[in-house]
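PROTEIN FOLDING TASK:
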Amino acid sequence: MPSAVCCQLVSVPPTQANFSDQDEELNEEDECWTDLQLAAKDGDLTKVESLLAAGADVNAAPTGYYGNTALQAACLFGHDTIVRKLVEADADINAPGGNNGVRSALQQACVVGNKSTVEFLIENGADVNAPAGRYYGRTALQAATEAGHLEIVQALLEKGADINARPAGTAGLTALGAAAACCHTKIVELLLEQGADVNVPPSRHKGLTALQAAALNGSLEVVDMLIKASADVNAPGSSFKGGRALHAASAKGHVKVVERLLEVGADMNSTSGWGGKTAIQTAAIYGQDEVVELLWKRGAQGPATGGTILFDI
């Protein structure tokens, strides 16, 4: 039986979470970056100081799909000293990110998990509730919960971060959904205690509810936590590249999660996704024979074959 594999539910733009992808993307677009942005990314304090002394534009706009301002680049790669140097030079803390990345300096810092940098940015006026960018974006709180940085999550909540902020339009996740997707049980527990809405609908494109995210990644513990918090086991999935919780668990072959969802009333014959696929069809499409057999024995209707892919997994 497949085990839970956390944080592999969506394709995300380059972040600190995957340096190899980030470096490849940056190498392709280095010619689009200013010298100061590259020096900040590389952590070259001497060059940063030299460029600033020579009058380099500390607020040059990001270019390319995943461009960053100098400050955002320093935050993304964890260069705290350079972050402070750039802020001293009047870097715009709340400048928007690149075309697709669209992450502020604080949002980037929350991915990395450097609490000192996060606190410094907030002290200097960073907006803790800057919205998530349209494509794969995260608010600061969503970024911190996804990365599993409990202390930063607590700090952001203390500073008034919106626990139920709207997720990005493409592959968006609420703070609770991000924590559930990555099996961060302590953060899930904290967010539920602080009033997180367990039933925020998924974003239209590649979105997931918190329960769907947990089911997709096979965390029975998180699934149970969300069910106890009254998560809707039959909530519709995203209209594009999504499905109900049962479809999600079926797609990945998480038998124990499938069984649990059925126990609490998941409708095995409901349809979801393009063309309206049942859970048994979804399991068949992904080659999950054990789930197909389980659903068939439970009385699932419809063919155990055919259809389109519902999830990017």
In short: Residues 1-5, 8-26 have pLDDT under 50 and may be disordered. The two ends are 17 Å apart (CA to CA). The chain has 17 helices and no strands. The longest helix spans residues 19-29.
